[in-house]
Known about the structure:
With 937 residues, the chain is α/β, with parallel strands linked by helices. The protein folds into four domains: 3-72, no CATH class; 102-296 and 310-369, Rossmann fold, CATH 3.40.50.300; 395-611 and 619-638, no CATH class; 707-925, no CATH class. It is 34% helix and 17% strand. It has 29 helices and 37 strands. The strands form nine sheets. It has a ten-stranded mixed beta sheet with strand order 1-10-2-9-8-3-7-4-5-6, sandwiched between helices. The protein has a seven-stranded parallel beta sheet with strand order 12-22-20-13-19-17-14. A six-stranded mixed beta sheet has the order 25-36-34-29-28-27. The chain starts with 9 loop residues before the first helix and ends with a strand.
Amino acid sequence: MSRYVSQEYAACKEWVSKKINEGFSWNDVKFLCVSQESAKNEFVNLQEEEQIIPFNMEFDEWPAFVDEYHNTFMQIGDLYGISSGPAGNTFPVPTDPSSPWTKYKKYLIGQYDGKRRMSDAAVSEIEKNSYWILNHLSRDTRGTGPIKGLVMGSVQSGKTANMIGLVTMAAYYDWNFIIVLSGTIDNLRLQTRDRFKKDLSMSGGAVWHILDKTGNPDYMKDIENGNLYMTENLSLNLFQAGRQHNQWLHRYVTVCLKNSTRLRNLIKWLHADAAKAARLRILVIDDEADQAGVNTRKMDRSETDEELIERTAVNQLIIDLVNGKDEEGAPTKSPFQAMNYISFTATPYANVLNEAFGSSLYPKDFICSLPESKEYFGAKVIFGSANDERYPGLDIVRNVPEKELRDLKLLYDGSAFTLPDEFKKSICWFLCAAAVFRLRGRKSPISMLIHTTALQNGHFGEYEVLKAWLERERSTGRILSLCESIYEEEKGRLTPEILRECYPDYAALDEVDGSFPEFGSIQSEISLLLSDIRNIMMGDDKKLSYGEDAIHLCVDNCKANRVAEDGIYMRIVYPEEPMNKAPVFIVMGGSTLARGLTLEGLVCTYFGRNTNQADTLMQMARWFGYRKGYELLQRIWMPEAIKDKFILLEEIDEKLKSEFEDFMRKGKSPAQFGPRIMTSSKIARFLLTSKNKSQNAVECEFDFSGDSYETTKFEDSEVLADNIAVAEKFIKKIGPASVSKVNGSAYVWYAVDANSVISDFLEKYKIFDCSALSKDFPIFLNWLGQMNADGKYLKWNVAVVGDQAAPSKWNVGEISVGKIERSKKTDPSYIDIGSLRSGLDALCDVIPENLTPEQQALFRETIRTRKQIIFVRGDLGLEDTPLLLLYCIDKERGKETPAGKKTKLNSKYDIIGFSIIISGEPSGKGHVKAVSVRLPK
């Protein structure tokens, strides 16, 4: 093992990191960033005067040390987010074998117990994410004020593991007190607390004290040994070279409910000893930050004095905590040495739209977007991407008809005595999936989620009818018969081959188990489960017991255990130790299942709870996450209207991530320009977040600039023929074309007069009423007229893009291009192709030889990565030149996709589709299709 991994080399690694991030080369660092002749003197200086290089290192060893560190070095770059400036620190990733991070990393990959919790790739992402965030924190904020950042991660994507990874790195660099703010439900807080306790104590690297509230606000309790702590009892020692860290290093973690009483007591406790408070380096992690901590009290938007803003109690207390005030909101004599506040959420809309005053919780210093792992099943994978044709969506979502939603309401008040049809199917599929798991030898829990209402009485109504149906029908054979029917129907709808086509980036494709046993092989297992319908049982000693061959019915809400009979535990708690066979759970509930609660082995969901708020709906999606081992078994039942909302949410999320990438590329910070979040008219009254959580949102008049639009929905009628005539007449009028310098199957007309584009094509082309573009297009044309009146967008480039290998051609004027192939979705009655434009088509009007060397380099990089194509057009000299792309879609072509999601067009006529790309920066005039935060002047 290398001798350079211990803590005594941390200071010189930090020095090397700083020099590399300042732009010095590794060869420069080998000579200590001075001349070769002066290198030895500089070495002595750094060793004796600066005390950066350890005394046991010789000058001749320095190059070997640099080479070894180079192999593991990770450069700080804005890889994951936008920030108000360069990274404030240059800490290297801890490699000391006894450091908390190194030990946590080994714990995640199962090096201690052989139980791998994450893949190497996923752990590497956590390391990179934590490293980026760590170096944007501050160990001393007394002169600068607190650091405030936001971390955006997808639902059920492993945010807690990222939090713990950050905590272990921060602990290594002397952050000594960690506060996790956790929701409004104590059951979820306890889940988070116990997760931190388990992972930190298993990984080690320090003496971890997990502190919890007591009945006396003067004391906090160590949940490991019951010891009581006053602030004055804290051991706030720092790392020292040559000592075993886990023997002497003390780090404190508390998980606090976002409740005014608990927050007030925590603040009072922290400030109880001024001398100790002044030595606290605090990291606050606000989990589910868009919940409870956002100010929802109605604000006067004309008010510019933030001291006069009225706040909700929890929001005010979090602000006081972060800004170093006491529990009464008064300044303290001894401010904390460091305060770093980071909000974590999958739905950051409220956090960046509500307010941006200096003392608020607005993430002025950085916003970080956690990349999704290639093992994660999110909205893009499950529902498909509107912007990435590689992701058509998985055929795992089953429709719950509107009539069934009405029937569900009868369950809530006791008016129904059986389950609706699709509800029954979902239960039976779950039993089949559970039986397959158990036949494969799985021992960890298998769960089903039922989430249809927020009403607690509704959960009990569902529970009673479900339990009665299972007990009544199990002996008749009807459940087994329905299980066989649904199993034969479903088992072939998602195969390894289909998964490979629909999720080509999935990291575990080669490990997917595609075997589905005959129903006769799982029938006895289903019968065994049906023979014991029960709850989790609780003995007099409060210990919980489970049935190995049973279906456990759980109701998870705040009322459940209060009304449960003696000896029954209604809420979901999984066995602490593996059982001989996988235990089976069906969980019904509302709020607790919509925020943070993780269901183990979630393979089936029956979901019917609707909402008109994007953030609330996304948080309910417990089915997103890691599904390794049961990729082909997962199923979701939901209404079509809710499915459409999730498809739109994926588009909003992709737009926001694209916005982050553009900010990173242009060096913008959240303190200068609030992130813009797309809104949409596709679904009426569908809000990003509640109005009182977005009070400081302003409409952005920019959206047609720097964006693109395309036709993807068509009516199979004579209108298609009319559009062909409009396109051909327009093409013949604008004269001769040139073959594209980028795409040999495209023809381009340069500098076409805007009046001709608008009057001869755009105004005459008939857009299908079912297309969302039909509502926006008249507004777009009005906006375009305003732009033209201001002398902008007066010349367009027009291109017809074809397929060189196509069997049939579109001949118009002097050009002949291959008709392109598109498939239509099988669900709607009209033609919906999903997406029209292929990515690089947006660059077909670029003339590479006219570019500067810098532009040519950017062009080549864009061709390679296929990222930020719309934004890059502006940097290639096309910022004021819109592009109209025309396509002729062959009516005879199209593919039957393996997932059954698309089929051949078989339309009456060929289809003319168009795409418009408006290059450039926001114009300052436009139709409102996005919102941002009003930043203080």
